[in-house]
Amino acid sequence: RAYMTQNKIPAELGQKITQFLQYQYTLRQEARSADMDVPLLELLSPQLQGELQFARFQTDLCKLQVVAELLETADRQVIHVLHRVSQDAVKNYIVAAADVIFLAGNPANFAFLKLSGSLSYCNEETDTIGDDLVVGDYWVAEVALWTPWHYLGDLVSTDVSRVASLDASAFCNALTMSWQTQRVASRYAAMFLEKMNFNLDNWSDTFILPREVGANPGGRSRPLSEQHRYGWYRCPCWRSASKVQADELSFVGPVGPRTTGS
């Protein structure tokens, strides 16, 4: 208020600014509380740490069809793998309004999920109207989990927002810890890339596999582990693919399943 008075800011404008700052401060504090570090939790055993992190991130991870499928028939090995994914691959953080999350042409090492706030995605190649607001129902740049990729558009926050990131390398490495998760992920990657390559003129970082893929005649999706038309590969579970070079950015896109491991 003193700043407004000293600079002779009109009362109406000063009230708008004050209300806006109060709102932004409240949002930031709520986000920090949700993701704050609790030193006492460091005393937990590794297994309990995994269970805790999976409990935190399960809802978000299940927005990936492959994770939801794994949980339908999860055994001890699958649960252990998903615990490792939660510990090693998922991070939450806060972004301010107008923060850039990724830019077109940069190597895609992460997928992103909006947890709260507002994000905008723009792909100049396919978007002729303007920025699209991102909903929190899907992971942006999920394709980076399944093939070497460069971002095709820009993802920017339009408000103070909480965002989850999923490290593609850590995610893939965790899934290779079990033959079951490796097999399911391999088949899912093949389906994802096949479907995406049917839409060459509409490639986007926001592409997701349609839910009806793999549905049986009754309308219910068949488990990926039962869809035998896609073979599976020994470790690494995704086929090798050449990285897209910097001078090939106009041709970026799915060229084959991502390779994991060394």
Total strand segments: 7
Helix/strand structural class: alpha+beta
Q: What is the radius of gyration? A: 21 Å
Tell me the overall shape.
Answer: flat
Note the run of SSEs as H and E.
HHHHHEEEEEEEHH
Terminal CA distance reads 58 Å
Mean pLDDT across all amino acids: 76
The major β-sheet equals: 4 strands, antiparallel
Proportion in β-strands: 5-15%
Spans of at least 5 consecutive residues with low confidence: 214-222, 224-255
The helix count comes to 7
Residues in helix, %:
25-40%
Strand order of the largest sheet: 2-6-4-5
Q: What would the keywords be for this entry?
A:
262 residues, alpha+beta, four-stranded antiparallel β-sheet, three-stranded antiparallel β-sheet, 7 helices, 13% strand, flat
Describe the structure.
The protein has 262 residues and is α+β, with helices and mostly antiparallel strands. Helix content is 36%, strand content 13%. A four-stranded antiparallel β-sheet has the order 2-6-4-5, with no helix packed on it. A three-stranded antiparallel β-sheet has the order 1-7-3. The longest helix is centred in the first third of the chain and has 25 residues, at 11-35. The protein is flat. The N and C termini lie far apart (58 Å). Mean pLDDT is 76; it is low at 214-222 and 224-255.
SSE order and pairing:
Elements: H1 2-6, H2 11-35, H3 46-61, H4 65-72, H5 76-88, E1 90-95, E2 100-102, E3 110-116, E4 119-122, E5 132-134, E6 154-157, E7 161-167, H6 168-175, H7 179-197
Antiparallel strand pairs: 1-7, 2-6, 3-7, 4-5, 4-6
